[in-house]
């Protein structure tokens, strides 16, 4: 058993330092995004109720409670995360089932639970709980040689939470679960699966951008060329080649049905704006257009702390939450944006480093789940802010305002650090 002194030396303080720096910089940007020159400047003369009207003050409370969570997470026996993974998963599934029935609609979705003055989003916490559950399952199988039953069980564990989240009309949070594929790939999943998913995604995107007859002609010519110039394919894989061609053609025609019949109106418009930014500049395209203006107006070094005009006049909606990166670009400029990106890349590198030194499959898989989830949020959030990804409403880790977001990412990261602190006591499973 480790003494407190020895345990403290085992904690990865480099990662802790990066986390604290990111949380502090995130709070500065939340303060800037919610700052108003007309607001009272002498905050010490305000009552607690009056202070609760300011996002920057509430974010301080979230940070304070996050620090308390860190202490609890590091004190809990690290084996508990493995032992109770399935129980937590079952409780989380029950909560996701209940949420749409008891939550009141907010911004078109029923995904927030209200506990007095506090609002919590179960979908945020579902990510780290699912990571624990799939990591425990992965620790008991060999992904390189798993049978169909194992594949089905892993798919069930991964896909059930996002399906329930979609039922609450929170599609953006559901998409995050696709990031688990990166962790599975590290543990031996065939790269062919990733290749097929990437190819499928590319075909769907092309079907939205290119006339369908052109695509059908292109893939038909490609099939003919393969069959003509590769006799081996002709002799042994003709049915497979034709089958792949039929699947591709089906996907090309299926895009219209999916786009027009399954997506909601605001989701279709967001994709249309991504393809053609000038499609609806005063409607759905307003957020992205104003975000680009805000980031571009910052120039190289930015306008300065609290000097962002786009921020002060509320041109960008949700600027302290989903579009917090606009504040970074406008007030800190290109240099500040690069520093922010470097901070995230450094954190991701450190998480992968910590994951690779784990002695157990459970710890390593969980570490890669942590890296995958944070990477997805980071890439998609910044991508949608600069118009490279559709607006799906997911926060920037440790930067965006909100208790659910900060708490979930804090728990996600510090469970890994708690497991890592005891890595030398783990047996290879």
Keywords:
single chain; 429 residues; mainly alpha; two-stranded antiparallel ribbon; 20 helices; 2 strands; 1% strand; globular
Structural overview:
- The structure is a single chain.
- With 429 residues, this protein is an all-alpha fold.
- The chain has helices at residues 4-10, 13-34, 48-51, 55-75, 79-83, 85-102, 122-139, 148-167, 171-175, 180-186, 191-209, 212-229, 231-236, 238-262, 265-275, 286-297, 309-312, 324-356, 361-385, 403-421, and strands at residues 113-115, 118-120.
- It has 20 helices and 2 strands.
- β1 and β2 form a beta hairpin.
- The chain is globular and about 80 Å long.
- The mean pLDDT is 82.
- It is a multi-pass membrane protein.
- Keywords: Cell shape, Membrane, Transmembrane, Transmembrane helix.
Brief sketch in words of this structure:
The chain is mainly alpha-helical. Helix content is 70%, strand content 1%.
Radius of gyration: 24 Å
Principal-axis shape equals: globular
Task: Name the helicity range.
Answer: 55-70%
How many domains would you count in the coordinates?
1
Beta percentage is: under 5%
Structure classification: mainly alpha
Task: Give the strand line-up of the largest sheet.
Answer: 1-2
- Total helical elements: 20
Q: Main beta sheet, described? A: 2 strands, antiparallel
Distance between the termini: 20 Å
Low-confidence stretches: none
Question: What does the average pLDDT come to?
Answer: 82
Instruction: Please identify the oligomeric state.
Output: single chain
How many beta-strand runs?
2
In sequence order, what are the helices and strands, one letter per element? HHHHHHEEHHHHHHHHHHHHHH
């Amino acid at each position: 058993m480790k003494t407190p002194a020895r345990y403290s030396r085992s904690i990865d303080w480099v990662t802790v330092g990066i986390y604290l720096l990111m949380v502090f910089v995130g709070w500065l940007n939340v303060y800037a995004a919610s700052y108003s020159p007309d607001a009272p400047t002498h905050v010490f003369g305000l009552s607690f109720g009056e202070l609760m009207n300011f996002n920057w003050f509430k974010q301080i409370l979230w940070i304070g409670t996050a620090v308390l969570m860190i202490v609890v997470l590091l004190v809990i026996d690290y084996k508990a995360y493995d032992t109770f993974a399935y129980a937590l998963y079952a409780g989380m599934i029950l909560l996701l089932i209940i949420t749409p029935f008891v939550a009141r609609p907010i911004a078109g979705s029923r995904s927030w639970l209200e506990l007095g003055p506090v609002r919590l989003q179960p979908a945020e916490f579902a990510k780290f709980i699912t990571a624990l559950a799939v990591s425990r399952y992965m620790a008991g199988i060999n992904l390189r040689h798993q049978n169909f039953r194992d594949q089905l069980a892993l798919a069930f564990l991964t896909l059930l939470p996002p399906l329930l989240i979609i039922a609450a009309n929170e599609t953006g949070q559901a998409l995050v679960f696709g990031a688990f594929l990166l962790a599975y790939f590290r543990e031996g999943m065939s790269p062919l699966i990733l290749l097929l998913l990437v190819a499928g995604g590319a075909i769907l995107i092309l079907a939205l951008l290119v006339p369908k007859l052109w695509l059908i002609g292109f893939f038909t010519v490609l099939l003919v060329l393969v069959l003509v110039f590769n006799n081996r394919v002709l002799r042994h894989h003709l049915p497979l080649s034709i089958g792949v061609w039929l699947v591709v053609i089906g996907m090309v025609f299926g895009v219209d049905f999916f786009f027009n019949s399954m997506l909601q109106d605001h989701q279709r418009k967001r994709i249309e704006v991504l393809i053609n930014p000038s499609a609806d500049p005063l409607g759905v395209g307003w957020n992205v257009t104003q975000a680009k203006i805000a980031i571009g107006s910052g120039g190289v070094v930015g306008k300065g702390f609290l000097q962002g005009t786009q921020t002060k006049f509320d041109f960008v909606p949700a600027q302290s939450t989903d579009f917090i990166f606009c504040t970074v670009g406008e007030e800190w400029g290109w240099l500040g944006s690069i520093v922010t990106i470097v901070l995230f890349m450094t954190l991701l590198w450190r998480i992968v480093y910590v994951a690779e030194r784990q002695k157990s499959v459970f710890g390593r898989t969980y570490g890669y789940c942590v890296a995958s989830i944070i990477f997805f949020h980071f890439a998609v959030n910044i991508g949608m802010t600069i118009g490279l990804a559709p607006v799906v409403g997911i926060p920037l880790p440790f930067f965006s305002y909100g208790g659910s977001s900060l708490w979930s990412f804090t728990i996600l990261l510090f469970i890994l650090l708690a497991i890592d602190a005891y890595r030398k006591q783990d047996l290879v499973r």
